[in-house]
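Much of what follows relies on a compact textual record of a protein's fold. A record is reproduced here so that you can trace the correspondence yourselves:

. . .
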Amino acid sequence: QDNMAFTGKYEVESDENYDDFMRKIGIPSDIMEKGRNFKIVTEVVQNGNDFTWSQHYPGGQSMTNRFTVGKEADLETMGGKKFKATVKMEDGKIVADFPNYHHTAEISGGKLVEISTAGGVTYKRISKKIA
C-alpha cells in the first residue's frame, strides 16, 4: 500500500448502526437527527505519515484533525471534545482510540471504510471517492 493511499475526497455512501452508536457516545438526539442524512464529505491529505483529516458537513461546518502516525496529537471528537491520542497504522489501517470509542479507517476497494466501536456497538461508514 503506497503512502498516499488515503489522499482524496470521499462522500458517505452508506452506514450501519448510526443511531445506536450515536446514542452510545452521548450525541444529543437533535444533532443525531440532523446528522442522519448528511452526506458528510471526508477530505484526507496524506504526506507519508502526516495526515490532515477533514470532515465537511452541510451548511459549511467542518472539523479538521492533523496528526502524524506514531506521535501524540491534539484531536477532536465527532462531538467536539478535544483530547490527546497517538494515531497508529496497523496493516494499512489508521487506528485511533478516542475518549469513548475506538476508530479505524482503511481504503478498501477504492472506498474509505471507517469503523467506530463503543461499548459493543459498531458503527460502520463507507464513503465513495469523489475527487
